Amino acid sequence: MDDQGIDVAVLSLSSPGVQDLPETGAVAVAREANDQLAAIVASRPDRFQAFAAIPTQSPAAAAAELERAVCELGFPGAMLYGRTGDKLADHPDNDELYAMAERLAVRRCTSTRRHRSSPSSTPTTPTSPSPWAPYWPEPDSAGTTTSASSTCA
After folding, report:
1. C-alpha closest to that of 21 among 48, 61, 75
2. Residues 23, 80, 90, 96: is their CA dihedral positive or negative?
3. Any alpha helices (H) in 44-114, and if so which ranges?
4. Cβ neighbours of residue 55 closer than 8 Å, sequence gap 6 or more
5. CA–CA separation, 13 vs 50, rounded Å?
6. What is the pLDDT of residue 151?
7. Are the C-beta atoms of residues 97 and 62 closer than 8 Å to each other?
8. I want to staple 55 with a disulfide (CB 3.0 to 4.6 A). Which of 26, 75, 122, 137 is the partner?
9. What values do phi and psi take at 111, rounded to 5?
10. What angle do CA 10, 15, 21 make, to 5 degrees?
């Protein structure tokens, strides 16, 4: 990292995350992955941060794991994926997760990947505002967002 001028790396579970797992497996694997990421971050908090793995198969578990990752593990946000099974990220099932993210005032990173059933591998560039915009605060002019630690009850 030093050779490349990187001060801090943000770690996450890589694509496809837990999105291709059955619901019960996804919840357990997300929790375990987040615990392991937290241990890595704790070993060098000056060099690492992490985005949480979120089990979007279960709306309640997804919101609960985001809250745990932010409030207990200290993560600044979550890594989300564009599709879970046949549901896109803007499916109403995700409203509970996005409401939790809004309450916590945390960021998200959305990874797009070609889904096995996707007819095209051509990436698209969004031309309209993100559907998550109301739920995920944009950074201010200094590039910062509200600290999650101030929003955890």
Report:
1. 61
2. positive
3. 59-71, 95-104
4. 18, 21, 23, 26, 27, 29, 30, 61, 62, 65
5. 9
6. 66
7. yes
8. 26
9. -95, 125
10. 125
* Phi, psi for 121 (deg, rounded to 5): -105, 5
Q: Where are the domains of the chain?
A: 2-150
**How many residues can be counted in the chain?**
153
- pLDDT at position 85 is 82
The encoded tokens of residue 24 equal 């019960």
Give residue for tokens 């919840």. Answer: 27
* SS3 assignment for 107-142: EEEEECCCCCCCCCCCCCCCCCCCCCCCCCCCCCCC
Architecture of 2-150 per CATH?
Answer: Alpha-Beta Barrel (3.20)
In the chain, the N- to C-terminal Cα span, in Å, equals 35
Match 């490349």 to its residue by tokens.
Answer: 4
Q: Give this prediction's pTM.
A: 0.73
d(CA 72, CA 110): 22
Q: Is the pLDDT of residue 125 over 60?
A: no
Helix or strand or coil: residue 35?
Answer: helix
C-alpha 130/C-alpha 80 separation (Å) is 13
